[in-house]
Structure formats: structure tokens, C-alpha cells
Specification:
Layout lengths: L5 E11 L12 E6 L6 E2 L9 E10 L5 E8 L6 E9 L1 H6 L1 E11 L4 E14 L4
């Protein structure tokens, strides 16, 4: 666990090869991210299975928080369908201050298959105030 606190900037670049959850029509995927479920942030809706988002989100990291949770969801009229999710360790970005753009897999079936991936870039600015 980390004792650091500060601002975590997460740039959601794009998603790739998302699993199609629609029986009819085109998928409208969005991405949710959170450190704590009570403080979820959500991307705009997009079209297709390889959407480009180019959105940046800001989270306040408290001591003890070292995972970013990410979920891709297909927006539907009556019920939204989860496409896939993952948790990402923040150890690298908290220690170095940045993590370059990288594809994070949305695993399925114990990692044997994939529901696609999200491409994220992260930066951490430590709050050194008492």
C-alpha cells in the first residue's frame, strides 16, 4: 500500500476490439473509472467497437489507494451491458510520476479470452502538503 496522496490524471485514448453486446444496431460503448465506487467517472458515449475518446480524468489518490478500476459498458435503451473490466496497479505511476500510453486488456474467462482493451496514459502529481 502506498502512503502517497495527490492528483492522478488518466487519459483515456481509445478502446480496441470491444466485444459486441448488441443484437441489433451499433454498440455505443463508454468507459467508467474509479478508485472508490462512490466516485466513478464516465467517458462520453461513442460508436463502434474501436472508439476513440481522447478524454482526461482527474482523481484524488488518498494513502492506501493503489488500484484504478476500469469498466467498458455498452449503452442500451433499457439496460446497459458490461463489456469487460479490469483493475490496474498504480504502483509504477505513483513511484515514477507517470505511466506511458499502454493497452490494458479486459480479460474474460480467467484471462483465457479478451473482451477488448482500453488504452490509458497516466500522470501522478504528489500532494506534499501536511
Amino acid at each position: 500500500m502506498t502512503s502517497k496522496k495527490g492528483q492522478l490524471y488518466v487519459k483515456l485514448n481509445h478502446a480496441s476490439n470491444l466485444r459486441d453486446k448488441d443484437w441489433v444496431g451499433q454498440s455505443e460503448p463508454y468507459v467508467e473509472m474509479w478508485l472508490e465506487k462512490a466516485y466513478k467517472q464516465r467517458s462520453k458515449d461513442n460508436k463502434g467497437l474501436n472508439p476513440v475518446y481522447d478524454e482526461t480524468f482527474c482523481f484524488y489518490v488518498r494513502p492506501g489507494q493503489n488500484k484504478l478500476y476500469v469498466r467498458a459498458v455498452d449503452k442500451d435503451t433499457f439496460r446497459n451491458d458490461k463489456i469487460g473490466d479490469t483493475s490496474i496497479s498504480l504502483d509504477q505511476v505513483l513511484s515514477s510520476g507517470q505511466a506511458p500510453a499502454k493497452d490494458y486488456n479486459l480479460p474474460k474467462w480467467f484471462g483465457l479470452r479478451s473482451d477488448g482493451s482500453v488504452n490509458l496514459q497516466m500522470q501522478f502529481v504528489e500532494d506534499k502538503s501536511a
